[in-house]
Amino acid sequence: MSKAILNIRFFARLREELGTESLELPAVPGQTVNDVLSELASRGGAWAQLKGTQPVMVAVNQAMAKHSTQVHAGDEVAFFPPVTGG
Amino acid sequence: MISVQTDDFDVGAEYEALRSSGSGTGAIATFSGLVRDSGDVSGVTGLFLEHYPGMTEQVIQGLIDEACQRWDIRQARVIHRVGRLALSDQIVFVGICSAHRADAFSACEFIMDALKTSAPFWKKEITGDSEHWVEQKASDVVRTQAWE
Questions:
Q1: Pairing of strands B90-98, B27-34
Q2: Superfamily of chain region A5-80
Q3: B11 membership: H or E segment, kind and range
Q4: Pairing of strands B73-81, B2-5
Q5: Where along chain A do its domains lie?
Q6: In whole angstroms, what is the distance from residue B48 CA to residue B117 CA?
Q7: What would the pLDDT profile of B58-86 be if each residue is shown by its tens digit?
């Protein structure tokens, strides 16, 4: 049984601007990616950009997801800017 | 086979590995991408490439699987480098072998286009005294959408 937490990760520009590579949040039944973003953005400062005008991509358990995707205890939820490889 | 690595790669060796894939192979298409100055700022000396270990490989495997469903391909090889790279360094390799050229060309181009907009890599350009994250290009998104 996994702990009732979400493992949040940040990559690239977001990781640098938030000064945070990863953190844990309590998992709330029924919550979506969008709820997680709202909670983090409410911290203010650089965190507000998570609900700003720049696109924020999300992956849940290492698969691309949408802001409407539901997240559950034990999930790995990663936020990052649009990708630029290749 | 997929490799995400800091080390450089040898296109000749990769080609020979694809060539030994069996007597049914009649065509090999390869693509090599090099680090270039994006033109967003002046004085770029190189790049730093970040990725999301684990997810990167899963996304690329998904692209290879999709290519295998859409075209008749016998083998696919993708290499992507991460870490610090200099201008003109090799950054990405896609090699496809197939019975016929059309499938090899198409699968190679599809994987490369889709990789650019879906695989979790991020480039940071480095100049003499500063660095900045590269923005995704609308033209890359358009190219990927054209395969849908």
A1: antiparallel
A2: Beta-grasp domain (3.10.20.30)
A3: helix B11-19
A4: parallel
A5: 5-80
A6: 18
A7: 999 999 999 999 999 999 999 999 999 99
Binary contact (A83, B33; C-beta < 8 A): no
Tell me if A83 and B55 make a contact (CB, 8 A cut-off): no
Q: Quick one: fold of B2-145?
A: Aldehyde Oxidoreductase; domain 3 (3.90.1170)
Which residues of chain B does A86 touch, with a Cβ-Cβ cutoff of 8 Å? 33, 80, 91-92, 112, 115-116, 119, 121, 140
What pLDDT shows up at residue B18?
Answer: 96
Q: Which residue of A has its CA nearest to B80?
A: A86
- What ipTM was estimated for this complex? 0.93
Strand ranges of the sheet holding B2-5, from the earlier edge strand across to the other edge: B2-5, B73-81, B90-98, B27-34
What whole-number distance in Å separates Cα of residue B21 and Cα of residue B27? 11
- Interchain pair A83, B121: CB under 8 A: yes
